[in-house]
Specification:
- By secondary structure, the chain is α/β, with parallel strands linked by helices.
- Among the domains are: 175 residues, Response regulator (Rossmann fold, 3-Layer(aba) Sandwich); 94 residues, D-Maltodextrin-Binding Protein, domain 2; 94 residues, no CATH class.
- Helix content is 43%, strand content 14%.
- The protein is built from 20 helices and 22 strands.
- It has a 7-stranded mixed sheet, with helices on both faces. Strands 16, 17, 18, 19, 20 and 21 form a 6-stranded mixed sheet that branches. Strands 11-8-14 form a 3-stranded parallel sheet, sandwiched between helices.
- α2 packs parallel to α3 and α17 crosses α19.
- The chain starts with 10 loop residues before the first helix and ends with a helix.
- It is a multi-pass membrane protein.
- One of its GO terms (cellular component) is plasma membrane.
- It is found in: Cell membrane.
Length: 604
């Protein structure tokens, strides 16, 4: 008998060949399922515990896409990018070990999984109960058929079914290798959480105006995020259940555990959290986030700074360049007036036949600037042009000044004392611990930060508005403005312009949560139709109206304090006049005394 020589193209192909017909048929079936349902751009991870050469060889040959073979508990360094898996096992214990390894190694358990068991004793009920506990819902299970061993049995399950919110009951799939046009292999991983059939959708949140409002008794929600949460529940046909963490805050990592809303996710008590926590690298690394649906501005807030003294408001209509220009003009007039008394200017005046002014030119310029009439007007054209230009300039400046002066006197102007970050370091400061992460590279802020929870933040806001504390608080700008709007503009608070961070607003899920895909579709639709933007902008317009209503409809009359600057100038002018008058009287008496002495001396 002649021996037949088989030629292999490479060593791996020779190593994987085998003749087991049953498992080979299941491998081919699994390859076709993967071919029509997996995404070819991702690497497919093939896991096995024993050397099942026929099965692995058949799968790799028929799938013909990029795969990574993995045996035992070996972890790939790029495991986070793997979205689809094929598991070859001999019994139920192998399946449990591999599934546990996927979870503990932080593989994407929400990916598409095909499980092949070589023994017909692998109970599908036990397999799907294990999958349900790990919340792996995108799974297709193959095992040899007990009746027709050559034809594999193919199963899947739906974790939410009509009348049963948690189900692990396997359902048989009608999949045949020889089906027409491979139609039976397509769309075998549909979205299974797009309909909750009235089951509970658990959300972790807390009272956080203006984003979330909770009724005390019924826990009915409203507000910007409340409307979005109700929309998600309605589209998913779910019964919305609100869970408020005992800490009433976003949450932080403390004592090797997470607290607040993030702790509810971490402990798998809720499907997702809606808490408007600023997104940091720590949160992004430990939780899965939705598509950003809006943004928040985290800013500094402090008590209202001291008011600008009323006497300073007289020059407030003029900005610094205009003040400098007017002052320079008058200084120029003073300089010309001084030059007019020199011998050089007197010689020029004689040559040009210019009559010397009877009064000081500065006095004339000031009269014209105030709009007072002159006794005489020069007959020379060049002097007329100069005087008329000065009259026109003075008229424009004076009219503009008079128009804005009343508004300037009545306006509330603050002497801002927190213009730069270095100014904040002079006061006690702090905020939520998650905001502190943004200052990790700034030791002055990071090491001196005072962490406060959400309840204490609201108390600090009240104390800041009542000017009882110098604390500078870092908080969401919308929360600050809403808190101020509750007083209908009767109380004020300082919001520093320099923004700490403009963070996207997202929903938080546990890592590899199956809820991310169905909710992402709802969020995208809500964004595209403008539902979220309309909700946020409508709320902001209402807050702005409340903030301005107190000062818009309660106009205050002018008081004596508004004119304190005017009276100060008047008193200073009278004081200077009296001083000059007293000096003139004294000098006159001294002159008379000197004249008498000189007369007596002459007579002697």
């Amino acid at each position: 008998m002649e021996s037949k020589t088989v030629k292999y193209e490479n060593f791996t192909e020779m190593f994987l060949k085998d003749d087991d017909a049953v498992i080979n048929r299941m491998a081919i079936l699994a390859a076709k399922i993967a071919y029509f349902n997996f995404e070819w751009r991702y690497v497919t991870l093939v896991l096995f515990t024993t050397i099942q050469t026929a099965a692995i060889s058949s799968f790799v040959t028929n799938y013909n896409k990029t795969v990574a073979l993995n045996t035992g508990q070996f972890k790939l360094h790029y495991r986070r990018h793997i979205q689809q898996f094929v598991i070859f096992s001999d019994d139920f214990s192998d399946i449990c070990n591999i599934l546990n390894m996927l979870v503990t190694s932080k593989y994407n358990s929400n990916g598409k999984i095909i499980i092949i068991c070589a023994q017909d004793k692998c109970d599908e009920d036990q397999v799907f109960k294990t999958l349900m506990k790990s919340v792996m819902i995108n799974v297709i299970y193959l095992k040899p058929s007990i009746v027709y061993r050559e034809e594999p049995s193919v199963y899947w399950y739906r974790i939410v079914r009509p009348g049963k919110c948690f189900s692990s009951k396997p359902e048989r799939l009608d999949v045949n290798i020889n089906c027409e046009n491979n139609a039976c292999f397509k769309n075998l991983f549909p979205e299974k959480l797009s309909n909750f059939y009235g089951c509970s959708l658990f959300i972790a949140t807390f009272q956080q105006p203006p984003f979330m409002y909770l009724a005390n008794d019924t826990k009915k929600i409203s507000g910007k995020d409340g409307n979005l949460a109700k929309l998600i529940a309605d589209v998913l046909n779910a019964s919305l259940v609100i869970r408020v963490p005992k800490e009433h805050e976003w949450g932080q990592y403390k004592n090797k555990n997470w607290t607040g809303c993030l702790g509810e996710i971490f402990k798998t008590r809720v499907h997702f959290a809606m808490c408007n926590a600023p997104l940091t690298s720590n949160l992004y690394g430990n939780f899965q986030v939705s598509y950003p649906y809006y943004y928040m501005e985290v800013v500094w807030t402090a008590k209202v700074p001291p008011l600008v003294p009323s006497w300073q408001k007289i020059l407030q209509p003029f900005n610094l360049p205009l003040k400098f220009t007017i002052l320079s003009l008058f200084l120029g007039i003073i300089l010309l007036n001084m030059l007019g008394k020199t011998k050089i200017f007197n010689n020029i005046r004689r040559v040009c036949n210019i009559t010397p002014p009877k009064r000081n030119s500065l006095f004339y310029a000031w009269l014209l600037f105030l709009g007072l009439p002159l006794e005489k007007f020069s007959s020379r054209k060049h002097f007329k042009i100069i005087i008329l230009a000065w009259i026109w300039f003075s008229f424009v400046i004076r009219c503009a000044y008079q128009v804005t002066l009343v508004t300037s006197l009545k306006s509330i102007t603050y002497n801002y004392n927190l213009r730069y970050d270095s100014d904040i370091l002079k006061y006690p400061f702090g905020g939520m611990s998650s905001i502190r992460d943004y200052f990790i590279e700034d030791k002055d802020f990071y090491e001196n930060w005072t962490s406060v929870d959400m309840q204490k933040a609201y108390k600090l806001l009240d104390e800041i508005m009542e000017e009882k504390t110098d604390f500078v608080l870092a908080l969401n700008k919308d929360t600050i403005l809403h808190h101020a709007a509750e007083h209908i503009g009767s109380k004020r608070i300082q919001v520093i312009d320099n923004c700490i961070v403009k963070s996207p607003i997202v929903l938080y899920f546990r890592k590899h949560s199956p809820m991310t895909d169905p909710i992402a579709k709802i969020m995208n639709a809500a964004l595209e139709c403008g539902f979220i933007q309309y909700s946020y902008q409508t709320n902001w317009k209402r807050q702005e109206h409340l903030l301005n209503s107190h000062y818009a409809y309660n106009l205050q009359p002018l008081t004596l304090d508004n004119f304190s600057g005017c009276f100060s100038l008047l008193i200073i002018g009278y004081g200077i006049s009296i001083l000059y008058f007293a000096l003139e009287v004294i000098c006159h008496k001294i002159d008379k005394t000197n004249q008498r002495i000189d007369l007596l001396v002459d007579q002697e």
